[in-house]
Specification:
Blueprint lengths: L1 H16 L5 H42 L1
Helix pairs in contact: 1-2
Length: 65
């Protein structure tokens, strides 16, 4: 998250130096933000799914004993 904040401030300082703000920079930032949020949600899903499977296997092992 800190990296994104640093990138935002860099984009702002660059746009102050130029007379016209360049849209590609904004597009790149939005794209990176999208990838970051998608990765985060995917990792959370994988984490919860693995915990759920682990819980099921524990219950299965307990029922056999």
């Amino acid at each position: 998250m800190e990296i994104l904040a640093i990138m935002q401030t860099r984009l702002r300082s660059n746009s102050k130096n130029k007379k016209i703000h360049s849209p590609p920079n904004e597009w790149i930032f939005q794209f990176i933000n999208y990838i970051y949020s998608t990765l985060q949600s995917t990792l959370l899903k994988v984490f919860f799914a693995s915990n759920f499977n682990f819980d099921l296997s524990l219950k299965a092992n307990l029922s056999f004993t």
